[in-house]
Design goal:
The complex is a heterodimer of chains A (351) and B (600). With 351 residues, chain A is α/β, with parallel strands linked by helices. Chain A is 30% helix and 19% strand. Chain A has an eight-stranded mixed sheet, sandwiched between helices. A three-stranded antiparallel sheet of chain A has the order 10-12-11. Chain A has a two-stranded antiparallel ribbon with strand order 5-6. The relative contact order of chain A is 0.12. Classes of the chains: A alpha/beta (351), B alpha/beta (600).
């Protein structure tokens, strides 16, 4: 925890994005999490991603639940909309906000306790419905705020800081997100921003439910030998299937790749993901194969990271519901109450 | 890049930009912290040990430290280091009891110092307490040299000069005021163990133009004129005055003239305004007193009528640059301009003059008639004779004279102890972690965003009436605290330990200046381009440490680091620590003795 605010001074040569902002303009207040917390690195990655995408801060709504992870929206995008909801209830609050105003970019920030325990049902339904959002789980495998009990994502057989071995089976949120029909599923690591930042950018650009499981070591309670969510363990067992470059629609594709090593994925907003394959056999559009791949590697104790699955031509909840293009909160009284004649016509259609 | 060797005192010394730029290497952040804490006496003594004349330099220093200040790179204006030094002098308690005592026992060595200016007095200060019998000769009655004769009293009152020269003379120094040394040969014959020449650059350059002889009564050499004003021999000048020259002496001349009856004082310089040698703040002060500065005018002729000066004719020039980028002033193609005036002050430079050193006295001179002096030891070709200050390498500033004095004193002390004077002592370095608790440091690490504070000035109407009335009033305690808070504490260093690092990126994320990068190591030039923020300032070092678990290296660009300590606060393992690295130049005395080889 730091008491001092980050000084306003910044590097004289900081690059500016298309809006004329530096990455410093995407910061929030200073973090009060423990020194070295993986969540702070995720915060920095979100800041970098939004900066690189030249997102206008007032076009973003960041919504969270309760927990260390859910504190983090305070630390980024200080000029965006925010809602710190009840424990585990981020998905329903976000769904409501999204239905009311489909024009905003929705960042749902949650943790393993918030999403895999108390909010497990909420997590499932938001993904199942295809709410257009970036659902980030800052996954450290412990309850940090209550001093380090195992969470539902702690691997069976891993050791707590006090030496107790976890006997419960773990929930693999990425695997479940695949099963639930999320149209974008990725896993990354807070200690690898080169992988994480492009994944967040691609997720934000994705139309539909984009889920990212980010392993984020808890330096205070889960960074010891025997933990499977420590910096050392994740680095040693990281099995990255691909690396991403996100190329915005405004930029011509200039990067040259060796043929056969790169797959270009078009996104609905016109941007492109260049996927550099690290595992030649990995099929990023095959949900069932991705599922198998995850299980197969999890059994070997490996942590699969990268963009695990992306659905071509994905859609979102608004498309399923056939809502109008204008955000519902922008409709005026006349549009919402078209009068007796319209009501009569509607009633007649129901008879 | 190899891992940086931080045990080399030069590495962190360079990070403390102000101290590194100061010729005497005064530990600036150390004394600024003391000022902020209200410890003015302590701040004064830190200064006194290092630069001997804190009160004088706090008013007159050329401040090489300030353009170097990191604050310039971070925002715009440096910390007002010089004027904070004056604060220490102004508000200190009585420090006489803290001064060294005159030596109880003399060591039998006799040293003659020629000239009683800053260089000689520094040598005296360093050597007298060690037991050397030090005698200072000066043509003037009182000590101080150019400090007393050439700097106007409205910038530096006599009381400050008296106080600080007396701290030196009270160390048992034999001061022979009014005794000008006329012959080096005679002095050498007196059998001194060492002689130090600190006679300055006492000759003002003249302008040999048509009309110079005829109008001589109203054409004065700047530094001679200032000296006569200083001693009260001159109390008036004509109503219209032209000052020729663009250095600090010219600024002193014009501002003095303003106070002695010159209602229309103008400065005329050959070069452009921006290329003038005068310090920017001195130019500002002159302009503030209603003195216009005309540039690109080369004096051609003094006009006169019946032996009375009537004005100066100037040729208008412009700057042209040749293929090699050298500047040449060429005729601008405009008609010559005539500036009518009653008096002219010529302040176009100073020269060394050694009429009293016989050329067969065993001291070699070079083709420019300057003594051949070693740039490190300050020894001349006669091993017993040393030079320092302006006398050694031509006109510079007081702080350079002090630095020369310290080094010459080391040489004399070593020579008279039978040591090799080329073997220079290492600086003393003290390293201390500043960590007090998780978020507590023993220095104020909160970064102050305030802009530089202005020193209050006396009302112009009053200031111009009395040549002895000091113009600058100095910071009061409250302003001093605010200005001191702007210091970034660059001597509190970020020290990194690779074995402790878990590469969590917390320091990278929190650093407000994007100074820190964890990346694959490489050649420095290439590394500089791919850091979190490109390190384009090549004068500033990269701090590299390899040996991390992932095989990467930690690279920190020292350039704009705020020394805020947030990297260390956010570090979960203590891999970053904030350590004060206090470096002090070793002066003459026991600490400059070479280390003895132990018997075992």
């Amino acid at each position: 925890m730091t008491y001092l605010a980050k000084p306003k001074f910044h590097h004289p040569n900081l690059p500016k994005n298309d809006l004329g902002y530096t990455h410093r303009d995407y910061e929030g207040t200073v973090s009060t999490l423990c020194a070295g917390c993986g969540h702070d690195s995720i915060t920095a990655a979100i800041i970098q991603a939004c900066f690189e995408l030249s997102i206008e801060p007032h076009r973003v709504a960041k919504i969270s639940g309760i927990g260390c992870s859910s504190k983090t929206p305070t630390y980024f995008l200080g000029n965006s909309h925010g809602f710190n909801s009840v424990h585990g209830r981020m998905p329903s609050v976000l769904t409501g906000a999204n239905l009311a105003n489909r024009d905003l970019i929705y960042l749902g920030v949650s943790g393993d306790g918030d999403s895999a325990s108390i909010g497990f049902g909420q997590f499932a339904h938001a993904l199942r419905r295809g709410v257009n959002m970036t659902y980030i789980v800052e996954n450290n495998g412990v309850y940090g705020l209550t001093k380090g009990q195992f969470s539902a994502t702690a691997d069976r057989g891993s050791k707590s800081k006090r030496g107790v071995v976890n006997t419960d089976n773990s929930i693999d949120l990425a695997a479940i997100a695949l099963q639930l029909g999320a149209s974008f599923v990725a896993r990354s690591f807070s200690g690898d921003k080169q992988q994480l930042v492009p994944i967040i950018k691609a997720a934000i650009a994705h139309k539909g439910a984009a889920f990212i499981d980010i392993i984020s070591p808890c330096v205070a309670f889960n960074n010891h030998a025997g933990s499977t969510k420590s910096f050392d363990f994740v680095r040693e067992h990281n099995e990255a299937v691909n690396r991403l470059d996100v190329i915005s629609s405004r930029m011509p594709i200039e990067v040259k790749y060796d043929p056969g090593t790169v797959e270009i994925v078009e996104q609905h907003d016109g941007s492109t993901i260049a996927l550099r394959k690290l595992d030649a056999d990995y099929q990023v559009h095959d949900r069932a194969a991705a599922h198998g791949f995850l299980q197969h590697h999890a059994a070997k104790g490996q942590i699969v990271t990268g963009l695990l699955y992306v659905e071509k031509d994905a859609d979102d909840l608004h498309a399923h519901l056939h809502t109008v293009d204008t955000p519902l909160n922008a409709l005026n009284e006349k549009e919402l109450c078209p009068g007796q004649a319209a009501l009569d016509k509607f009633n007649a259609s129901m008879r | 890049m190899k891992s940086t060797d931080i045990s080399d005192p030069q590495y962190f010394h360079k990070v403390v930009d102000c101290q590194y730029a100061c010729p005497a290497h005064t530990p600036v952040p150390e004394y600024i912290r003391m000022i902020a804490a209200g410890r003015y006496g302590d701040a004064y003594m830190v200064n006194w040990k290092s630069n001997v004349f804190p009160g004088i330099l706090g008013r007159t220093c050329d401040r090489p430290c300030e353009p170097a200040c990191r604050r310039v790179r971070v925002e715009e204006e440096p910390v007002a280091i010089c004027r904070l030094k004056r604060v220490a002098a102004d508000f200190k308690e009585d420090v006489t009891a803290r001064m060294p005592k005159p030596a109880q026992r003399r060591n039998g060595k006799r040293i003659a110092l020629v000239g009683g200016g800053p260089a000689s007095l520094t040598v005296a200060r360093d050597l007298a307490p060690l037991g050397y019998s030090v005698t200072v000769f000066d043509g003037d009655k009182k000590a101080g040299g150019m400090i007393r004769t050439q700097i106007p009293k409205f910038r530096l009152p006599d009381s400050v000069i008296d106080e600080e020269t007396n701290y030196v003379l009270d160390l048992g120094v034999d001061f022979r005021g009014g005794q000008r040394i006329e012959s080096m040969k005679a002095l050498l014959a007196e059998g001194w163990d060492a002689i130090f020449v600190g006679t300055g650059a006492p000759r003002g350059r003249d302008l040999d133009l048509p009309g110079r002889k005829e109008a001589a009564a109203n054409i004065h050499i700047g530094i001679d004129w200032l000296s006569s004003v200083s001693f009260g021999h001159i109390t008036k000048i004509g109503r219209r005055v032209i000052v020729l020259g663009g250095g600090n002496t010219a600024m002193d001349c014009c501002r003095s003239s303003r106070r002695l009856g010159g209602d229309e004082v103008q400065v005329v310089v050959r070069s452009g305004f921006d290329e003038m040698k005068a310090s920017p703040w001195e130019k500002e002060d002159a302009q503030h007193e209603g003195i216009p500065i005309h540039n690109f005018l080369v004096p051609k002729e003094f006009t006169h009528d019946n032996g009375k000066l009537t004005g100066v004719v100037f040729e208008k020039v412009k700057a042209e640059f040749d293929a090699k980028g050298r500047r040449k002033l060429v005729n601008a193609g405009e008609p010559d301009q005539h500036f009518p005036c009653d008096d002219v002050l010529v302040a176009v430079g100073q020269e060394n003059a050694f009429p009293w050193i016989e050329r067969d006295a065993g001291i070699d001179f070079d083709e420019w008639n300057m003594p051949k002096v070693d740039t490190v030891t300050f020894q001349s070709s006669n091993r017993k004779v040393f030079f320092g200050g302006d006398a050694a390498f031509g006109p510079k500033n007081i702080i350079w004279a002090v630095a020369h004095g310290h080094e010459a004193a080391v040489s004399i002390d070593k020579m008279l102890n039978g040591e090799d004077i080329a073997d220079r002592p290492m600086p003393a370095v003290e390293v201390m972690s500043q960590k007090m608790g998780i978020h507590e440091w023993s220095y104020d690490n909160e970064i102050d965003l305030d802009k530089r504070y202005k020193v209050p000035h006396r009302d112009l109407g009053i200031a111009l009436k009395d040549i002895k009335s000091e113009v600058e009033l100095g910071f009061d305690v409250e302003l001093a605290l605010k200005e001191a808070s702007r210091c970034l504490n660059c001597d509190v260093q970020t020290v990194f330990s690779a074995p402790l690092c878990i590469e969590c990126d917390a320091c990278v994320d929190i650093c407000p200046m994007d100074c820190i990068t964890f990346t694959q190591n490489g050649e420095e030039a290439e590394l500089r381009t791919r850091l979190t923020a490109p390190a384009l300032n090549l004068t500033q070092d990269l701090y590299a440490q390899d040996g991390l678990k992932t095989g990467r290296a930690m690279i920190k660009d020292e350039d704009v680091c705020l020394h805020c300590g947030l990297c260390a606060e956010r570090c979960p393992t203590g891999a970053w620590d904030m350590q004060k690295v206090l470096l002090e130049i070793t002066h003459a005395g026991n600490s400059c003795r070479p280390p003895r080889r132990s018997a075992a």
